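Hi again,

Forgot to attach this to my earlier email, sorry! This is the prediction with S-adenosylmethionine bound. I've pasted everything inline since the attachment limit keeps bouncing my files.
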Amino acid sequence: MTNDKQSIKEKVSSVLHWYHQITMPDGSVTPGLNKSAATMAVYEKLGFPTDLRGKRVLDVGCADGYYSFICEQRGAEEVIAVDYRQPTASGFSVAASILESNVKHVVDNVYDISPEKYGKFDFIIFVGVLYHLRNPLFALDNLRKMAKPNATVLVESHIADDEIHETLRCEDLTEAQMNAINKISLWKFYYANTLNNDASNKWAPNFKALGEVCKEAQLEIVAQEKFGSRGAVLCKAISDNALEHSRKMDSATGLNVA
Ligand SMILES: C[S@@+](CC[C@H](N)C(=O)[O-])C[C@H]1O[C@@H](n2cnc3c(N)ncnc32)[C@H](O)[C@@H]1O
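Structure tokens for the complex follow:
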């Protein structure tokens, strides 16, 4: 089947649930619920690389692959798109086929990816996944292992600032007290399906904590932006002996480290 307008339409409508709004070669856009272009505009402002020639890119929690395909279009030498769902369970397979993409999809979990399996990367995308995880810092530590020295790492998440404020407003706190609360790193835990009726939503940081958890994982903040109930941080992978020591202690691999 060729990629004429009709066949693109048929292939796109064969996917039950699109997440991303991906522009197809005929100018049509996949009917995802995520406002992909608007979110991408925020990432561009933060410094999402425009020229990826010669670079290896890792997109963890890729869903339909919007960001992976953009990186390929920006000249990346290799793009590996990871998701714990099969590519046929999302729109990834269909989008990749229509776009004639060479992005490599692998079914894996952020907790289990390793440089031994996939090598190290120049640019790592980890957006829209953190708040789905039961063990967010463990995931970021593992993600950090995938980074070449000074690699760029983009982390984005639902953030809990507004919900925390809403709750505290009931207690009649002053504006000054609210601002003081913004300066505390806080994480909100969502028991069962209490965030958006989705049981996969577990922990959301406030904006301050999002930056600090990145720093704890040896990801230095380059630029950050709060947009609505979301926060994005563009980071540089660094090495910090004290932070690495504490990570190793926690994973019980560093108990004999001085
Ligand atoms: C909300 S979507 C975000 C998609 C895309 N990254 C974005 O922000 O537009 C979350 C994606 O992460 C995947 N995911 C969630 N937990 C994961 C994990 N532990 N390992 C790998 N993928 C995961 C889900 O299957 C889903 O495709």
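The CA atoms of residues 80 and 104 lie 5 Å apart. DSSP finds ten helices and nine strands in the chain.

That should be everything now.

G.
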